[in-house]
Amino acid sequence: MDGVDDFDRALGPVLAGGGDAETDAAACVLAGAGEGWAPAAASAYQRVAGQAHARGWTDPDLVRMAGRELTGRHHRLAGELARGRDLAAFVTAERLDRFSGATLLVELLRLYARLPRVPALGPGGPAPAAPGGGKVLGRIRALLAKAESTGYPEEAEALTAKAQHLMARHSIDEALAAGAGTGPGARRIGVDRPYEGAKALLLDAVAAANRCESVWSADFGFSTVVGHDSDLEAVDLLYTSLLVQADRALHAGRVSRSRDFRESFLIAYAARIRRRLTEAAGEEESAGARGAPGLLPVLARRDLAVQEETKRLFPATTTSRLKGRDAEGWNHGERAADRARL
To answer: What pLDDT shows up at residue 14?
Structure first.
């Protein structure tokens, strides 16, 4: 256990706020620990990651932060460690020397140790699944995959519209099956650079249309979406698909665009998508209410539960304003949203 103890002592100054000199010193100790270097690395990772978990960070959050704040190699290492792989295997796969591998680990642990406390995300209450729920989500995924891959705007629009209607119908079925007694949960969804504000706006539009609430944590590159399980899954699926479709529309023709054009495009795209999704969800809700007179009170109680859980997780929030500065980009964004498959 000498290697573990020696590395823990060397790592202490790094985790306490040390800089490059302390990082190099700790990496040297780990690299020189002989056969005990991999167990020492695993022990340190479990301890530091466990402390981050206690502050509200999940393994996917930690992996995402490694990619956001460090390098692609740190991101790959974070993913391997989160899956229970060891540093020695990673070093071999990446064809690194021990010191380079040890440095990557120490830098990763330094990042994790500096992450502040965030709201802990508890799971929602157990909910009885609506009949055929898994099959419906499979159909939704298939529709969105086709919408992303087709080269015909009209076909993509029809496929996305059908997917949104299925999502809304599935949410209604889940609500009727579960009633109002099951609690909402929460999910963190990455909002990546560049144009994070516009992307967070798009995610908020998708969340609102699917009976969820979204809170953007700009410093950490994610939004926390609060809602019931089936709605959270729908939000994740549709947001990802709409980003793919927006990116394709933004780069159509391979024309170089200014930053203002691209940001204005995405802001307008998000605003128009919000209107389209809200309309589609409203149509399904109206149809469902005609067939099930008790639906609207159930949905209202579920909405209230989502609002209360959001306030519990985020008792204090602020709003931010986004401004489109390029009229051509705004017009292109609205047209792309009209073509997007919901």
So the answer is: 96
**Closest listed residue to residue 329, CA positions, set 224, 250, 220, 230:** 250
For the chain, how big is the Rg over CA atoms in Å? 23
Residue count of the chain: 342
Q: Is the pLDDT of residue 125 over 50?
A: no
In which residue are the tokens 């540093």 written?
A: 87
pLDDT in tens, 263-317: 888 888 888 888 888 888 888 778 777 777 777 788 888 899 999 999 999 998 8
- State the residue for tokens 């079925």: 173
What pLDDT does residue 321 have? 75
CA angle 254, 142, 236 (to 5 degrees): 75
pTM (predicted TM-score) = 0.79
How far apart CA 156 and CA 108 sit, in angstroms, is: 41
Q: How far apart are CA 333 and CA 266, in angstroms?
A: 6
What value, to the nearest 5°, has the Cα angle with vertex 313 and ends 177 and 134?
30
The yes-or-no verdict on residue 254 having pLDDT over 80 is no
Q: What b/e string do you get for 74-108 counting C-beta neighbours within 10 Å, with b at 16 or more? A: bbbbbbbbbeeeebbebbeeeebebeebbbbbbbb
Q: How far apart are CA 268 and CA 261, in angstroms?
A: 11
Task: Pull the structure tokens for residue 255.
Answer: 């024309």
β 222-227/185-190 pair status: antiparallel
| Tokens standing for residue 2 | 């000498």
Instruction: Please write the tens of the pLDDT for every residue from 224-251.
Output: 999 998 889 889 988 998 888 888 877 7
Half-sphere exposure of 212 (CA within 13 A, CB side): 33
| Closest C-alpha to 290, from 133, 172, 137, 163 | 172
31 contacts 98 by C-beta, under 8 angstroms: yes
Q: Cβ contacts of residue 5 below 8 Å, gap of 6+?
A: none
